[in-house]
Each structure stands twice: as structure tokens, then as C-alpha cells.
Amino acid sequence: MHRAIIIDDERLARNELRKLLQDFPQIEVIEEASNAAEGIEKIDSLNPDLIFLDIQMPGKTGFDMLQELERAPHVIFTTAYDEYALKAFEVNALDYLMKPIEPKRLADALQKLQQAEEKEAAQQAGIRGLLTENDQVFVKDGERCWFVKLSDVRLFESVGNYAKVFFATNKPLILKSLNALEERLDEKTFFRANRKHIVNMRMIEKIEPYFNGGLLLELQGGEKIEVSRRQAVKFKEMMSL
Prior knowledge:
Helix content: 25-40%
Structural class: alpha/beta
Number of helices: 7
């Protein structure tokens, strides 16, 4: 359910839009405003997900109003003047409806709202969600492509802005820095051994002491990875060595 506010100085236009929105049960019109000042006040107090905003209003225009908002909700512009169309998109509106509003165009605009929210939800999940060893990543190397389960990845090696992904006998590059990967990978499985390497703890065959209190790990693929002294302390704690 989306909570919407209609902001338009013409009462008839507000009524008309309200009537059209009755066919869209996912939108609940919680309030109306007839000018920018009233609009700002109601947006601040009610925090709607969506506003239908007339651009041409006496006093402040819809654009002026948006500039004053702390946090902008999704915006669908409604206006009788199409010369504003281009400017509307610079303000990153969801859509732009010409008056008189056609039901089909309204339906399209609300479809865009749905898509925008799905995209946001996916990004939010991405920010929060750690990748576990059961997740798979898509990897492309020239013409070859793989979906690789993270549990099959032995090692990530930094190569500038890229990371080399070691799995089976393959070592393709992905366009991700090691720091970005480290943020997304579950540290219970993937350990940052040093500046250049993240290793899969389950793929370690041998652990040997190394220079200056560091460690040397040998992975199932035969790779030998040094754990810096600082990381060795953390590693021993995690492995309870």
C-alpha cells in the first residue's frame, strides 16, 4: 500500500485525480494540499511514499517546493504545461502526467513506481545482505561465463580494481575491488589474509608459521598465501589455535 498526497491548487483537478486513483487499490490518498507551503507541511508531518505534484501553482512552483524538502518521496508530476516536461525529468521524477490525466498514463506511472521500489529494495538487501557460501556469483571471462557457488571459490586475489577468482582450474577476473568484496563476504568463511588476498577458510589444507609471526596457508589448489602478522592474530582467534 502506498500513501499518497495530492498537491494541486485546483480543487477540481484534485477531485479528478482522486477519482481516477480509486481504480488503483495500492494507492491510498491520505491528504491533499493546495499550495507548496501546505504541501511541505503535510509531507513533513505525514511522510508519504508518493506525491502527485502540480508544477504550476500560485506562489511557489512544484519545483520550488521539492527543493525545500528534507527528504523527497517519489514524485509524479501533473501539469497542463508540457514545456515543463524536460525540466521535470532533471528533478528525477518518476513520471510526468499531462492534464487532463488519462487513466492509461496513470497506470504506466504507477507501474514505474512499482519498478523503482523493487530496485530500491534490491539495493537495500544488497547493502545489508552478506553473501554466504551458498550464494552464487556470475563470472565472465572473455566468451566463457560461469555461475560459481561461493563455497567453490578458494581465493580472491586483488588485481587493481579487479579481483581474480580462483575456483577449480579457473581464474577469471571480476570488476570488484577486494575491499568491496570483503564488505559483502561472510567473514566466518572468507578471511582477509593480507592486502592482496581473501581466502576461503574451508579450503585451507595446511597452516605453517611464517616470518615475523605471520602464517603461511596452503590451499586445496596448491596456492600458498601469506597471512600478515596483524591478521595472523585474528586468524588464530577464529581458528582457536
